[in-house]
Amino acid sequence: MAGNDRRGIRVRIDAQEARASIEGTRKVACPLFFPRILQGWATKEDMMTNTPVFVGIDVSKGQLDIALRPGGILSVPNNETGFAQILEHLKANSPTLVVLEATGGLEIPLTGTLAAAGVPVVVVNPRQMRDFAKATGKLAKTDALDAQVLAQFAEVIRPEPRPLPDDQTQRLAALLTRRRQLVEMLTAEKNRLASARQPIRKNLRAHITWLERALQQADTDMTEAIRQSPVWREKDELLRSVPGVGPVLTTTLLANLPELGTLTHKQLAALVGVAPLNRDSGTRRGTRTVWGGRAHVRTALYMAAIVAARFNPVIRSFYRRLCAAGKAKKVVLVACMRKLLTILNAMLKHHTPWHTDAIHHA
Description:
This protein has helices at 2-28, 34-39, 44-50, 80-93, 108-116, 126-135, 143-156, 167-195, 198-227, 230-240, 247-256, 265-272, 295-311, 313-324, 329-350, 356-359; strands spanning 54-59, 63-69, 73-77, 97-101, 121-124, 280-281, 284-285. The chain is an alpha/beta fold.
């Protein structure tokens, strides 16, 4: 009996020692890898392989700042040599996600290089990054700090990678951007001409003439780009069959809204920025407003809605019904934008041309 007691005491002591040993091991080892470390055959390579790595890259004109989480920070030049160094570094770390922020087009070459190499990359809105930095208490702003915030954003939020536009779509978007720039410059020069003194009027008129010719050439280039693509040509013909939809809107949708025809009408309205957003708190019921989204698409859609409210029978009856209900004119126009976008989305999704009778009940 005593022997049994002694054996029981010995067993209890061994169990306590084992638990103490385990607790000591936990203090120095990551719990994720604890079973293998306890058995004595985990290696440094195992830990590096199993730890997810998130990367943030801050893009400036001459330099790229890269932050790895976990890991360090490095800087490389913003050129092909720097791209090769980044790819080599990422290949050694096998990142789960790489996040960049939109930087006026400076991020496009690097994003294309990473995507072509099979690296999961996401380009995010700079406003979201700044709000995330403030929410985490990071008020200072440098390129290195921005890269660290991008890496933390990738780890915490984990935005879903989306397929990048192909070269043809990027070329069409570049033509559309140039056309928009020409329109802005032409408007500015015409405004200056109205109040200009005589010595500079000749110069302004010459510049206006040049801008008008350049604008015509930009329209021709965009039309030719659409005609060269059978897919775009089919979509353009479907969209242009709607009264009130012209070449500027169709080109804008093809270049800046490739999701058209693939999402639900609610998702698309939120993406463009014409979905009414709640502003409620407690017992307060705020006014619904539209905010955010793709500004260039929304601008083109606004002009199309103004035309459609006069010449499209479906949108015209919708416009008049809301006005008769006492809605503000701006609210009615935004509602018309949303309805027109819903119609265009359904037409592309089902490959159906415009029919007034069929659309009337959409």
